[in-house]
Amino acid sequence: MDVDVLRAGTPGCRNRIHLNNAGAALMSQQTLDAIVGHLGLEARIGGYEAADAAADRVAAVYAGLAELLGGRTDEIALFDNATHAWQAAFYSVPLRPGDRVLTGRNEYGSNVLAYLQAARRVGAEVVVVPNDADGQLDTAALAGLIDGRTRLIGVTHVPTAGGLVNPAAEVGRIARAAGVPYLLDATQSVGQFPVDVDEIGCDFLCGTGRKFLRGPRGTGFLWVRSGVLEQLDPHVAEIQSAEWDGARGFDWVPGAQRFATWELNYAAVLGLGAAVDQALNLGLDEIGKRNAELGDRMRGLLEDTPGVTVHDLGRERCAIVTAQVDGVEAELVVARLAESGVNVTSTEPAHQQFDTEERNLPPLVRFSAHYYNTEDELEHAAALVGAMVGKRL
């Protein structure tokens, strides 16, 4: 991996130190060109006509995502964001009064709200699996909590507020043995390191383009294992997902397209395709190795800075690092770093409700490097943070 070449092909690297890749990574020039090029085509010949002209390239986006995840093209549906993709899967699982949904303490906030809504609507029960001694989902406890009422296991692979990597494949082994559908939120993991749906053993997986895949905002995707389709009842029927039977009924279309909607932002879709191609060309093994190294380096720098406390959990950790600066609120740290040309963000306790119930942490500063970042950038950011400790900002 030639980092200098990658940085030269990333316009944003010229202006900022971007350590907010868990929010939205910097797009490469080739991704930007794909988006702008299609927008120009729409302006010249019309939106429908441009989509027809790009049909083969759009089809290649599905193929690229399938290759990235280790699935099949007909198991992919595109969305405008990962939350809508996740919701399409979750709300398709029929729940009845007394049914149980098992999830982890690090589940993403929007997912938690959906669980609570389902509990309110139908009288289902949300069961939160405890963490083990390392702070990751306790798989032994998970196995012990599964019973005849368990209808779904929902897990966030990498939480939004820390470097933890949950043991997704072990969860998959338990889910398969119990015959329980398994929904994995891979929003922060796809593009950051290799993610293979067969190795993990999930039945659904959602992801986004804007984070570690380096695609545009407004793109998301859902993978659904073909073997579970007949157990599901998609919560939206429209002309992309279903076919009128000529009378007063309809049939779902084959594959994951039964979850999709007809209208798409094709410029963004093609940008997503360019980003996926770049990730595949670089190799997810190489990407994952470098990202793990950068995460370890950032974590070590902050741990070695007096007055800074790192709050990451887990046995396996990734490129996301969360920390607290003594005497300085997270939002102020973010603002001062931005003034120095460094992009980071802060966590929201309400975005990880079950974890907040247990640890009750304040907002933390979140640093998330990606493979195009340099060690010098990490050291500079850590030095800026160290200079803030104990000062009135």
Automatic annotation (TrEMBL):
One of its GO terms (molecular function) is lyase activity. It comes from the Bacteria. Belongs to the class-V pyridoxal-phosphate-dependent aminotransferase family. Signal peptide: none annotated. Keywords: Lyase, Pyridoxal phosphate. This is Selenocysteine lyase/cysteine desulfurase. Its cofactor is pyridoxal 5'-phosphate. It comes from Actinoplanes octamycinicus. Residues 18-379 form the Aminotransferase class V domain.
